[in-house]
Amino acid sequence: MKFRTPFSNPRSFLAILATVAVAAGSGTADAAPPFDEAPARVATQGLAAEEHLAQRAELARTLARELPAVARQQALRMELTAAEAAAIDGAPRGELPLKIGLVKPLAPALAIDGLDTGSSAGPRRAGVRGQATATADGGAVWAAVLETRGAGGVRIHLEGLSLPRNAELFFYSLDGQAHGPYRGAGSDGSGEQWTGTIFGPQAILQVRLAGSASPAALAAVSLRATEVGLVTERFVSGLRPPHREPAAPPAPGWPCGNESCLEDATCYGGIADTLSLAVAKIEWIQGAYIYTCTGGLVSDNNPTLGNFFLTANHCISKNNSAKNANFYWRFATSSCGASSCPTNAGWPYQTSGASVAKTNRKGDYSLLRLSSAPPAGSVFLGWTSAPVANTNGTDLFRVSNPNFGPQVYSQHDVDTSAPTCTSWPRGERIYSRDTLGAIDGGSSGSPVVNGAAQIVGQLSGSCGFNPSQVCSSGPGEDNATVDGAFAFYYPAVQPLLNP
Predict the structure, then answer these.
(1) Which residues lie closer than 8 Å to 42 by C-beta, 6 or more apart?
(2) What is the model's pLDDT at position 305?
(3) Distance between CA atoms of 174 and 90, rounded to whole angstroms?
């Protein structure tokens, strides 16, 4: 069996070979095990990470060439104040899920009710006609520039979105980031849409009508930009939280804004490599805030469904949150000991949107279905319904993205003597002690696997006398690391994963 490397990093190719070996070995037993399981599989469809990045950068360049001059002259402005940022950045670690930004109203709202390439059109109904520019192919372009101050990333909430068949909407930046196209009445036909996130001080909302921009087509363009989501600079730049500033200036490389006990996942091979190709950090809007968690791809035996993704119920449990979620794949350092940390603005592969397939507070799980396929070469992790919560000393492994930063690696041993927390009974949850590395805010939802890289649960958090102490979950220490147990809730997800 031959495989094409998904990108130039040889770690990824080795990880795929390791994963295929696990999958091949899982079906060789003479007798069926007394539990259900699924092997891992490798995604062979879709773009490789570098192809996706090049495609997005070329799209941004193409859009920028048609950016109307009037859009630059009439830029919208939004500020995230120092007090607002401090309230987000300084929140206690025990608050789950981790907040990384907030939502502010765009006042006044940007309301477009039709476009016009001339100069005589006036107000129309609740909105105004947007001033568009004719293009060389007979189409038209309208744009609005949004400039932010005090924020590291921005996304826009659109309502009443309605575009004719020959129109597409994009959200992009002049430095090569691009999201879209958004068509018709948005991704689910409701007319309500959150754009992807642009990192940096400026972002552009742009509508392009291809071919003949007839008066009827121009008049059919309608949208309202009512809110903006702002990610704080601390979570974009990788700075340490203000209440944990070190005495000396932070190093430009690892720990990339994390506590010193967290381990760079790129420094470990084997099972860490496999997990790094399955895990994504998540960013989504719920109510007045922007949150982050981690999750991972899940293999299945379902011939009619697919692209399953596992995270925690306390992260995403409703379709409105899943719908606007952004997934950042393979967000990791470039190499072990790298002198710089990865940046969100230049990250190769992001996808948007999902739906909730199954979720429950008991077991703290959410099984999502992604709206877009992950990058080629991604690993859909295998799983087993064999319980481990009461098997003392079982080795567990994890890769997660704490603090909206790069991937970290941790190892844990099941501890059946660890005290339990209220509403987190053993059996429904897996209690373990950290034996290498640790988890932190934003690690929630990350899959934990056994030595065969099979999912046995996903992260709920810490339980103990001082859960805010990131580095105190080892043997004999104050806290335990707690995961929702896959074996406990398997009967609920079995119809989806193994019908």
Answers:
(1) 3, 16, 19, 20, 377, 378, 379, 380
(2) 86
(3) 31
User: Which tokens in the block code for residue 312?
Assistant: 């925690």
Q: Is residue 306 within 8 Å of 357, Cβ to Cβ? A: no
Which pLDDT belongs to residue 4?
Answer: 25
DSSP letter assigned to residue 223: E
What is the C-alpha separation between 114 and 413, in angstroms, rounded?
A: 61
Q: Which helix (H) or strand (E) holds 237?
A: helix 233-237
Q: What is the DSSP letter of 375?
A: P
The gap between the terminal CA atoms of the chain, to the nearest Å, is 28
CA distance 432 to 416: 8
Beta strand pairing call for 76-79 and 140-149: parallel
Tally of CB atoms within 10 A around 4: 10
Q: How far apart are alpha carbons 492 and 357 in whole angstroms?
A: 11
Question: What's the pLDDT at 467?
Answer: 74
Q: So what's the pLDDT on residue 30? A: 53
User: 456 — phi, psi (to 5°)?
Assistant: -120, -5
Q: For residue 165, what are its two tokens?
A: 């068949």
φ, ψ of residue 65 in degrees (nearest 5): -65, -25
Cis peptide leading into residue 181 (ω within 30°): yes
Q: Which amino acid is at 266?
A: T
How far apart, in whole angstroms, are the C-alpha atoms of residue 353 and residue 360? Answer: 20
pLDDT recorded at residue 71: 86
Give average pLDDT by consecutive 10-residue segment, the chain, 499 residues.
30 42 42 82 85 89 92 88 94 83 93 78 54 89 95 96 96 94 94 96 95 89 96 82 51 85 95 97 97 97 91 97 96 92 82 97 98 94 97 97 96 96 95 95 97 97 83 83 98 97
The two three-digit tokens of residue 57, written as one number: 């950068």
What domains, with CATH codes, occur in the chain? 1-55+259-499 (2.40.10.120), 66-234 (2.60.120)
For residue 123, the model assigns a pLDDT of: 41
489-495 CB contacts, 8 Å cutoff, 24+ apart:
489/360, 489/362, 489/363, 489/365, 490/36, 490/385, 492/358, 492/360, 492/363, 493/357, 493/358, 493/365, 493/367, 494/36, 494/385
Q: What is the pTM of this model?
A: 0.89
Residues 433 and 88: beta-carbon distance below 8 Å = no
- Euclidean distance between CA atoms 104 and 315, whole angstroms: 21
